[in-house]
Every structure is written in C-alpha cells, then in structure tokens.
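Putative ABC transport system ATP-binding protein, pasting as requested.
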Amino acid sequence: MISVQSVCKTYNEGRPSALTALDGIDLEIARNALTVFKGPSGSGKTTLLSIISCMARPTSGRVLIDGRMVSGLPERFLTLERRRTFGFVFQRFNLIRGLSVLENVLLPATPLGGERRADAKRALARLEMLGIAGKAGERVEFLSGGEAQRAAIARALINDPPVLIADEPTANLDTELAHRFLDIVSGLRAEGRTVIMTSHDPRIWAADQVDRVVSMRDGRLEENEA
Ligand SMILES: Nc1ncnc2c1ncn2[C@@H]1O[C@H](COP(=O)(O)OP(=O)(O)OP(=O)(O)O)[C@@H](O)[C@H]1O
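Structure tokens follow.
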C-alpha cells in the first residue's frame, strides 16, 4: 500500500552542517497492518515517518501510496494527500489548551470545509466509541493521561483517514495505558485502517497486536528488513 523506494534524506544539504538522516530506504508497508519502527535515538524513525506521511519530502527516492507517486507532488497537492490519507497522534498528544475536547477533535476538520454539524456528530460518535463522550465539553488541560490519549486519537480520526501515524504515542504512558493504546489501534485495524508508529518501548515491540517491527540504525534498515 505504501511503497518507499531508495529514499534518502539529507538535512542542510550543501552546508557544512549537512546530515544524512535516511540513507537508501526500501520498504513496503502493508495495508491494514500495525507496523512499528524502532531504533536508537537519531536513527531516522521520525524522519521516515514524516516522509511517508507527506509532511516532508525525500532528498531523493520515491514514495508511492496505492501506486500514486506522492513524493514529487507540488506542495498544494502534497497537503491534500496528507489531509486525505493520514491522521496524526503525537508523543505529547499536542492538544490545544484552553479548548474543549470536542473543539480539539474538530480542529483537523476545519480546513476541509465540511458541514460543521455533521463534523460534530462524527466527532461525538468517535468520542463515544472511545468512551470519553462525557468529556466532550471539558477543557483538555483537565484530562487524565488516558483521556488525553483518547482525545488525540479521536482528533486524528475526524477526517476518516485510512492511515494513522503515531510518533512515540506511548512514551509518556504507564504500562496499562500503553496496552490500552494498542487495543484501540487494533480496533482501528479491524475497521480497515493501517497504523504506522514509532516506539522505543520493548513492551510495544513484543505486543501481540503488532504485525511487524522494522528496525532502523544510522538512517538504514537493519538487515532482513524490506
Ligand atoms: N529538521 C532537522 N534539521 C537538521 N537535522 C535534523 C532535523 N530533523 C532531524 N534531524 C537529524 O536527523 C537525524 C535523524 O533524526 P530523527 O528525528 O528522524 O531520528 P529518530 O530515530 O526519530 O530519533 P528519536 O528516537 O530521538 O526521536 C538526527 O541526527 C537528527 O538530529
């Protein structure tokens, strides 16, 4: 479904501070699977995730989503592809303080210009499914860690993206909440979604819900990955 072909990424290219973060990555990511990237700090996990999810472009190489070449798209189309295909959960969840749970969940819906009432209905249905509809009107700074996690997941799904991207989503969670996160993403897979995440956490690599662990080192995939 997502095909990464000979992807290299050099930051600050042509300058003395140039740094090769990805050095020839070839990877096929299966649809409807939960894939986890692991590797030491600085090995390129976040960079690869950002290129796969159309947040950044490779310096060379190609990324195809369902056979569509996205890596060479002009900015406007790359942004559209990103909004249409991906939902994002960040390490600290990046919920906007001062706004309610519902307002946070609706944030990614706004640029797509959908009908506000229909968006709110979808948001509430998702919050219900995640068991936090009762907190819809609560300001996010008053949520527990587990509630914030579920609010972040609801926000990532508001535009019904086929692929969920999560960068270290369990880093600040205790074991129970880390497993709860995996249970939720397993449920998303059952809805037909693809989940791609990074994790430093051996509890995650070993979890039953994970279909594949991809190991990275120094901007490359470890042997026997492809
Ligand atoms: N915007 C940037 N400009 C310059 N260098 C960068 C930039 N982003 C990342 N890097 C460098 O690229 C390399 C890979 O970084 P990346 O964040 O992809 O690694 P990572 O495996 O996700 O690390 P971590 O586990 O610590 O998050 C690192 O050496 C990092 O310092």
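Note for the archive: Residues 2-221 form a domain with the Rossmann fold fold (CATH 3.40.50.300).
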